[in-house]
Structures are given as C-alpha cells and as structure tokens.
Write a structure and sequence with these properties.
The chain is α+β, with helices and mostly antiparallel strands and about 260 residues long. It contains four helices and 15 strands. The chain binds 2-amino-4-trifluoromethylsulfanyl-butyric acid and cobalt (II) ion. The site of 2-amino-4-trifluoromethylsulfanyl-butyric acid has 13 residues, from loops.
Amino acid sequence: MVPSRGIALKSTRELTLMREAGRVNALALEAAKAVIQAGVTTADIDAAAAEVLKKHRAKPAFLGYGDPPYPAVTCVSVNEELVHGIPGKKKIREGDIVSVDCGAIVDGYVGDSAFSVVVGEMSPLLRRLMEATQQALAAAIDQMRPGRKTGDVSAAMQRTVDQAGFHIVRNYTSHGIGRQMHEDPAVPNYMKPGTGVLLRPGMTIAIEPMVLVGTMETRVLADQWTVVSADGSMTAHFEHTVAVTDAEPMILTLP
Ligand code: MF3
Ligand code: CO
C-alpha cells in the first residue's frame, strides 16, 4: 500500500497473511514451551520450534539473518541473557528464566514473537519480573490505536517497568514489521508520550519489552550475538506482532 513516511501500511488482505505467519510462529513457540524443563538443552528447545515451522512450510526468519549470520531458528536466552542467546549444549536448570524468540515467514510476511517462562518453582523476584514485562507488553499493545504515537507505545513500556523498579532496555528497540522482519519505524522501549510517529490503521509493529532487574546496561558475548545484562542480573522478554486497525489493536501472533 501507499507508504506513509517510509512506513508500509498493510491492507486487510496483508493483515490476514501476517496473521497466518504469526499463527504458525505461535505454534512453534508453543512447541518450544512444551519441551522446556530441567535437563533439556537450549538446542532441544530450538529443534522443537524448527520442526513446527518445517511442518507448516514456513521459513525461519532468524536463520542466516545479520552479520555474522544468525545460526539458529530461535533465540533461547537464559537468566542474565536478555536476547539473542544462541541455542546449543547449555542445559536448562530448575529455577531458570528461559526466553524464546522466534520468527516465521509465510507467503512473504513475517511473524515475530517471544515469551519467557520460569522452570519449576518461581522466586518472588522472577515472579515480579515476569509480571512487569508482560504488563509492559499489554500496556504497549493498548496504545496501538489510530491517533496515538509511537512514543505513547514506548512510554507505556517504560512507565510500567519503572514502576516495578526494574530497567527497560535502551539500546535495543521494538520495530515495524511486514515483508521484512525489521521495517520502519524503529520504536524505542522508552520515550516521552506524545513523541514519535503518528499511528495509522495498517501499521504493524513487533513490540518487545526487554527488561533487566539491576541495570539498563548490556553487553554482547564473544559469539557476537548473545546480549547479557552488564551486572549479571536476571532478565525477561515478551514480544507480539501487533497491527493498528480502525477498531481494537490486533495481535497477529496468536495461535
Ligand atoms: N525479535 C528479535 C528482533 O526483532 C529477533 C531477531 S534475532 C536475529 O530483532 F537473529 F534474527 F537477529
Ligand atoms: Co522482534
């Protein structure tokens, strides 16, 4: 459709296609979640998601992405790993907080979403962290309405996380999405309300609050992908791909 300041607005037909990509992606994440327990490796979690994408003939959006090329179908990030953890031999343990992020391409459109889960008994701290991050996503989705601005989406995340006493990431953003995994606009996870780009029906944004317990500082490990909290504190990440419509915000990454 006609671009608005470089932002590709999606037609109803395109939103239907994006919903299908999002649905398949959600099924892959469900399969990943189902295998998470103490003793499995992060590679096992990746394999469960990969199998579902394959079954639905969806193309993994992350595999081969970027430089160096991302080497897996999912990102599996454990504890102090905030995002972009590369699946491998690492074993999940009781009490870990595990975040899984996946992207699927179906008929040329991308679905991108992520969840975090605590294995077994949840400590009070991780319970608060999980709740704050999910609330930040929900509050941001609620701002996805015509007439609001991207800064309102950002501010909703920042406010929720600040109030919980945690830190929202500064150097990674939420993002427009569609035929490409990353489209305009980039949407920071912190910002003043009323700033940024006006939201219009047909805009699709992958909203992804990334939350750290002790600091907003991050660092990237030697594998050039894994992003960890600078202080080693716990982290969480939830993500949905969401469309602005004339009516309610439409979550495109539901099973
Ligand atoms: N949800 C993340 C993002 O939008 C996942 C990208 S992982 C990558 O940036 F490997 F594909 F980069
Ligand atoms: Co994303």
